[in-house]
Amino acid sequence: MSCAGCSTGKKDGTPTGCGSKGGCLSGGCNRLNTYDWLAGVEPPSFEEFNLAEISFKNGSRKYFFHNPHYIMAQKNDWVVVESGAGYDVGKVSLTGELVKLQLKKKRIKDETVFHKIIRLANDRDMEKLEEARNLERQTMIRARAISRMLDLDMKIGDVEYQGDKRKATFYYTAEGRVDFRELIRHYAKEFKIKIEMRQIGARQESARIGGLGACGRELCCSTWLTNFKSVSTSAARYQNLAINQSKLSGQCGRLKCCLNYELDTYMEVLKEFPKDADYLKTLAGDARLMKMDIFKRLMFYVYKDNKATRGKIFALGIDRVNEIRALNKKGKKPEELQGIIVNDDSSDDDVDLGFADVTGQIELPAEKKRRRKGSNRNRRGDSNRQKTNNTPSNNKGKTPKEKDSNKKFQKKKFDNKTSNHRNKNRNNKNNKNNNNDSK
């Protein structure tokens, strides 16, 4: 007796076996008997699907094209496809039955007319595509300068050249409608190609540019996310997140898409929490809800006006909260919350911090009052005049004779000033009298 797959000691075309009588316990052949359950089942017949999904510029734009049977491009092949003006070069991302699912997901009808794949791309096509990609950055910088020169309220986010460099698509963001007819004339004159303007949103712009998120990974919108769902601040409130615009917003300036990823799980757990449980009444005092730990199913309460329990936070389970609420509805109050005390800050008042009472022991000097600059100007001016007239500052370090001569010089100078002043007054009076006489 031998195993079905044993090939040792064949005689007349039949295996004689290894002598283990079909048990294979000796480890002579190391093979197990298997039965092919699918041997009599015919595989389903799939018809060849003649559409393929082509991605352009690293997946920033995807569309569907006819895949003729004489080409039969496979996944990851570079192909040359038809376009509205000329041809373009892209990479096959999906083929076969998966394309049907994508058409159904994007709600594209079967009657839609698709362009076809011309041929597989050669080296010259790839060189021309690389030249077109190298032109995009310079074109975007120049396009932004022209739009700024025309004072248009818009931002050029990205530029995509066609594979044959005959056409360029300018992707821009704007708050409202923009009249860019004059702008297209300048672009056509500057770049000498066919121009197409396409308005996109802030999220589509970040998806095309790409980058790293706060999690350290590449942005979801530029890798795997294909459709954008609306995100509201209520998603953050349900997850007990602080409403901080700078932390909740992504690189596009909108709320992060990942706020919706775990929202359904939070909503299911929140159904178990009691409603209208912000306040609980006990004999020890009224308790107020501080926060909730959703996945641990705990609710944290603190007494409002109870000095004995000041600083204590009580963690209650959902069952205990429902029990207290049921008693409150009947008009009864439990003695206390009977929860787990999270922290106890009531003992901080009795701690000796080592500081001494220095009241009456240390006396600080009185502050000197500063005079205001604008007050008593006339008095200061008079005192300064008296000082300059009586005690001139240039008499220090001089002999008595020099001091006397200096005093005489100062007196003479003062007399000259007063006499000049009197003469001016007299002349002014005489001029007035003469004018009155002439009148």
Short description:
With 439 residues, the chain is an alpha+beta fold. The chain contains ten helices and 15 strands.
Structure write-up:
The protein is an alpha+beta fold and 439 residues long. Among the domains are: 127-200, 2-Layer Sandwich (GMP Synthetase, Chain A, domain 3), CATH 3.30.300; 220-271, no CATH class; 279-350, no CATH class. It has 10 helices and 15 strands. It has a 5-stranded antiparallel β-sheet with strand order 4-3-6-5-7. Strand 5 (78-82) and strand 6 (87-95) form a beta hairpin. The chain starts with 9 loop residues before the first strand and ends with a helix. 13% of the residues are buried. Residues 346-351 and 383-393 have low confidence and may be disordered.
What are the defining features of this structure?
439 residues; alpha+beta; GMP Synthetase, Chain A, domain 3; five-stranded antiparallel sheet; flat
